[in-house]
Design goal:
β16 and β17 form a beta hairpin. The protein has 6 helices and 18 strands. It is an alpha+beta fold. The strands form 6 sheets. A 7-stranded antiparallel sheet has the order 4-3-7-12-13-6-5, covered by helices on one side. The chain folds into 2 domains: 50 residues, no CATH class; 204 residues, Roll (Pnp Oxidase, Chain A), CATH 2.30.110.
């Protein structure tokens, strides 16, 4: 078991040295009682008997997949023959005008980013979930890597076509934007590094050079309007399932795929590629 913490009720100050009461596991049986008493003997601290403390249980686990995810992004890049590739992913975060992307090394997108150093990060709204799900378990890489074949992936040259998306010209980079996405960010790869433990992935630092936003999401009439978070309805993938801000919005083919059956057996695939979900290639 992990820590079974006692947390002070709202508005209740922590007791004990340096708020130790707020960090100590509750005694939910003789084993936990003994642990509390041993801690008390070592530290000279006595557990609080204040009933205002609320109880929470935590358990130490090793899940088959550890993938909290982020809002879904569609990464458009250019293949060696000049055709566009489009890959859904949900391992991205932003700080200022820079973005970090986590992508599996087996995918075509990772190869394209290393070769061209350009991309567009398109953010779909939750109402585009059926289009995004059509891209799951597809790859722009031909031939398909053996591991991905085992997971049920297939090669697909026309990613825009199968998803029903429209490619539109970008202003500062060569890869196209996704017209239907309400947020489109043209970016330049600043740096790339191998990433992770028990995964085969790369992390890309991308600098945003052009930002395009649907006018319906904007607030403010000045020269620098901002995105109204109350109007923005991102599509979120968490543990390979699709959610909006209010709950699960659509069944995910990836969550029911052979890939999930593989990780569900408790194996650690080599090369493992959870950073590539859903269908990130």
């Amino acid at each position: 078991m992990g820590g079974d913490w006692l947390l002070p009720a709202r508005g209740t100050p922590a007791a004990g040295p340096a708020g130790l009461d707020a960090r100590v596991g509750r005694a939910a049986g003789s084993v936990r009682c003994a642990a509390i008493l041993r801690l008390s003997a070592r530290s000279g601290w006595r557990p609080s008997s204040d009933r205002r403390y609320c109880r929470r249980m935590h358990k130490t686990i090793e899940p088959t997949i550890l993938y909290f995810g982020t809002p879904v992004a569609l990464i458009s890049t250019l293949n060696p023959d000049g055709s566009p590739n489009l890959a859904p992913m949900s391992s991205a975060w932003w700080l200022g005008w820079s973005c970090m992307l986590g992508l599996g090394r087996m995918g075509q997108t990772s190869d394209n980013l290393i070769r061209t150093r350009q991309c567009v990060i398109n953010l779909p709204a939750e109402d585009l979930v059926t289009h995004v799900d059509r891209l799951a378990l597809t790859t722009g890489k031909d031939p398909v890597p053996e591991t991905k074949l085992q997971w049920g992936y297939r090669h697909e040259a026309d990613k825009f076509g199968i998803a029903g998306f429209t490619a539109v010209e970008s202003e500062a980079v060569a890869p196209p934007r996704v017209l239907e996405c309400p947020v489109q960010m043209e970016g330049i790869v600043h740096d790339v590094h191998p990433f992770g433990k028990n995964v085969t992935a790369n992390v890309f630092e991308v600098h945003i050079v052009k930002l395009h936003v649907d006018e319906k999401l904007l607030a403010g009439d000045g020269p620098r309007p901002h995105i109204d978070p109350a109007r923005w309805r991102p599509l979120i993938m968490s543990f390979c399932r699709f959610f909006g801000l209010s709950g699960e919005v659509h069944p995910s083919r990836l969550a029911e795929s052979d890939f999930m059956k593989f990780v569900g057996r408790g194996a650690r695939p080599q090369p493992a590629d959870p950073a590539a979900a859903p269908g990130r290639t």
